[in-house]
Amino acid sequence: MSLGVVLGLRRLAGLAACLLGCGCASTQLNQNTADLASSLSSLAKSQILYNLAQAIADPEFVPSQVTISIGTAQTANSVTPSVSVPLGPSVAITNRISSGGREQNQFTNVTTNAAPGLSIQVTDAWNQSWTMVPVNSPNQLRRLRTIYQFATGTMPRADPTRDLTEKEAERQFLCDYAIQSLAVQPNSPGGNVRYRVDGCLDYHGVATTRLVYADPSFTQGPSCVVCIEDLHEASPRPYLNPNLKYHFIRTSTGKTDDMVRLGAHSGTVFYVCGSAAGACDFVPGQRPFDGRRAYSDFVMFVYEAMSQPAASAGGSPRQSGGAAFVYSVR
């Protein structure tokens, strides 16, 4: 084997050692995994901004939301070297004789060197994918619609030209929010907690009273949307989580100088109050608050609204409904 082939093989070995032996594949995998994880918040924000825009354009819209269940990042590195060495003579000589006329002879010698061949193929393949579960349960969609209407100040009301006060909006929220409930037998006294909400407006604008059955696990803790302090009371008193703020999302028409840009979707720009000390034109009866903190809590309340209760009392833990599908980037 010639010296050039030997040197080429050494270079191939060094390159392969760099790609495979020095952790190139694992480094790329770590980078792809971090990139995939960092896209989760961006994906959630895009969905939320879309639904906020729909709530403003059409308050009776049906939300479009998915739950991210599984993320997969795959990376593959490969090095495929190819070396060809001639088996025959390394030099081939061809003699040609041509005659151009009387006393004109021409001799041609062609020498061909059969040189060895050297090639390399390097492959760096990666795949990133999210497995998403679409929200398709009617009660999930009702909860999401109510929470988006509440954030944008588009709650149903008898007089659409007047903005609701904070107390009026919270009462209407308690009426419209289809809180999670356990599937129990009609004659079963256990499982759900029962409470009554007065002053609920029906489709004709008439105030009515509603009796609500709720899974107790969704009324407790910092993530509860509709909360109950004492489940053992004869008449539990539900209240809205104080971290869920009414009409904290504003558009360009309601923007003040102390508001900051949250994002935009389909030409609609959203703003929130930059700080609790800012002049942000809060609704009647509402104490000042930081709109950026309100949005952060709002995202978690959206996830809470998408959660499903156990199939029955004592069954499986919370889960998201719907069939999964995979969104993949290669």
Secondary structure blueprint with pairings:
Elements: H1 3-21, H2 24-57, E1 66-84, E2 91-101, E3 104-113, E4 117-134, H3 138-152, H4 166-176, E5 193-201, E6 207-214, E7 226-227, E8 239-240, E9 259-265, E10 268-273, H5 291-306, E11 325-329
Antiparallel strand pairs: 1-4, 2-3, 4-11, 5-6, 7-8, 9-10
Helix pairs in contact: 2-3, 3-4, 3-5
Describe the protein:
The chain is an alpha+beta fold and 330 residues long. 29% of the residues lie in helices and 29% in strands. The protein contains five helices and eleven strands, in the order H-H-E-E-E-E-H-H-E-E-E-E-E-E-H-E. It has helices at 3-21, 24-57, 138-152, 166-176, 291-306; strands at residues 66-84, 91-101, 104-113, 117-134, 193-201, 207-214, 226-227, 239-240, 259-265, 268-273, 325-329. The strands form five sheets. It has a three-stranded antiparallel β-sheet, covered by helices on one side. It has a two-stranded antiparallel sheet with strand order 2-3. Strand 9 (259-265) and strand 10 (268-273) form a beta hairpin. Helix 2 packs across helix 3, helix 3 (138-152) packs antiparallel against helix 4 (166-176) and helix 3 (138-152) packs antiparallel against helix 5. The two termini are 42 Å apart.
